[in-house]
Protein: Kinase family protein
Organism: Arabidopsis lyrata subsp. lyrata
Amino acid sequence: MRIDLSVPKLRAELELNKVLGKGSSGSVSLIKYNGRRDGETLYAAVKTSNIIHADTLYKEFQILSEFKGCSRIVQCYGTKVEERITDDGDVEFKIHMEYASGGSLRNFMSRFKEMKLPDPLIRRFTRMILEGLAVIHGHGYVHCDLKPENILVFPSFELKISDFGLSKREGDNNWWLPSHPFAGTPIYMSPESISTGETRRGLDLWSLGCRPWWDKNYDLEDLKKGYMPLIPKDIPCDAKLFVMSCFAAETDKRKNAFTLLRHCFLRGDVNKIIEPLVMKNENSNDIALELEKIELRFSQLRCISGE
């Protein structure tokens, strides 16, 4: 359900519930909206930044606006970044997004012994993340900071990718400096990204392979040398093959999200990825945009199948 939080008359009916988290670039708070005639209470997450990090927030809002209707990417409400003056006289910037009642995937994993999820759940979650990456990469972006903290858990164990503040256009390496070689979280970066600043979809696929089964002795020096983490012997054979694909030294051998969705590890029909990527839209412009996306996906699928 979509809430237009940009309408001024609704603001008085929004109530701060609690702070969900704080980071170096701002905070995320939970708000509730009690103004519905049917009495239902709706929730939304509000991401707030100061003027120093305003550009990052505007960038994230712009990227999220391109993904409206994509069910594997967290949805952003409203039509613009909200600006206001705080009681202290500072400028504050906000965007409103879907609230994930299950928290982050990292929090979800912490409920399990040694953070190890059941095998069927790992396969299901991997498929959902790949569905999101297929859309992101299809739009020419690289997430650059794919990790459990940036994947949100919604009801019925549905996952959505969030936090696009560090995302970049594929092929953009202007950010890279030898003294600052990390576009995102260091331990989730790929060898080629930190050595030369290569920012392509292979970076996100490497990050996808970075599960909590990293060898405890694996560190950034190993990453800089291009070594992949050791893969435990006790995981299924098809899981090992999948992770090896994500950790391939040659980025082309990491394939792409659509190809990996056909991997035996996921045990699914590639045609099933079409339906979850699109949600029902409320106006003709959104519907036209989604039809264009669907047409692009069918084109990509035909290329994969060789038709």
